[in-house]
Amino acid sequence: MAQQFWKYIWVTLIFVLALQLCSQKQMMTSGDMSDASDENANALKPVFSPPAVPEVLSFAGEPVPLHVPDVAERLDRELLVNSYLHATTLLGLKRMQRYVPEIKALLKENDIPEDFIYLALAESLFGNVTSPAGAAGFWQLMPDTARGYGLIVNGEVDERFHVKKATLAAVKYLKSAKGRFGSWTNAAASYNRGMAGLGRALERQGVSSYYDLYLNDETSRYMFRILALKEVLGNPQKYNFDLPTERGYQPLPTRSVKVTSTVSDLPAFALKQGTNYKTLRLYNPWIKDYKLTVAQGKEFELKLPQGSM
């Protein structure tokens, strides 16, 4: 009986030891797996790094004084913000394919540097938007400013949304501002602050360059947002944006119809032209009503889809 008892004890001890060894092995294995899982999770985490500030940058052929610390830091801020606005940047790249050719040609014809494309992008991202203050269109013109440059702004027509006419109005402003301030950079800054406002700031502070001015936050950031858009949208792959041409918004093939007399029913007019009112408005965003009043001796040119008859 005693031998059987001790035999039982030894078997039990061996069984318990075996269970403990198995448990320890499982814990070690589980720990290894957990460590490996943590390592894999860390490897999959995205790494965000700030874009480098370019060593050299210019606007309209005018150098940006990046050797000045606050100038470099203000650009760095806008580069950081805009290089990580992924949806906005991709939308801007898509719209650029449709609108840049026409706007670039208009700027070139009127001796305005191509870089002002990025001013329009900073203002509206090539969207037919209206600000809370009432500025509208690609160039965000105020109603009275637009009228002062010959645009029609009323309940039926708002030519601030007419790409060509609004661009030519902006051209007139920029030429006037360049003549007053002597540089394209100051002219661009005045587009935000206004010629009078920028002129007062330059005179009061006794400087001649935008980069030497102490300004309100919006205007202080304004030029640097334009510069950041030029850098990012002008070099998308450098900032890891890849948009194949076929996935952008291509220019819309159109035909033109001149209207020399009042059209009392634009939806009916559109249907007669082989299209509809929605398409008429999309192709002519400056139309704001169901009718189009044409003064004697005046005319409007409507764009319609090519092939619609």
Core attributes:
309 residues, two-stranded antiparallel sheet, 54% helix
Write the layout of secondary structure elements.
Blueprint: H1 2-44, E1 58-59, E2 62-63, H2 69-83, H3 86-109, H4 117-124, H5 143-148, H6 163-181, H7 184-193, H8 195-205, H9 217-234, E3 254-259, H10 266-272, H11 277-283, E4 300-305
Antiparallel strand pairs: 1-2, 3-4
Helix pairs in contact: 2-9, 3-6, 4-9, 6-7, 7-8, 7-9, 10-11
Please characterize this protein's 3D structure.
The protein has 309 residues and is mostly helical. It has 2 domains: 58-247, Lysozyme (Orthogonal Bundle), CATH 1.10.530.10; 254-305. It has 11 helices and 4 strands, in the order αββααααααααβααβ. The strands form 2 sheets. The chain has a two-stranded antiparallel ribbon with strand order 1-2. The protein has a two-stranded antiparallel sheet with strand order 3-4. Helix 7 (184-193) crosses helix 8 (195-205). The chain is globular, with a radius of gyration of 32 Å. The chain starts with a helix and ends with a strand.
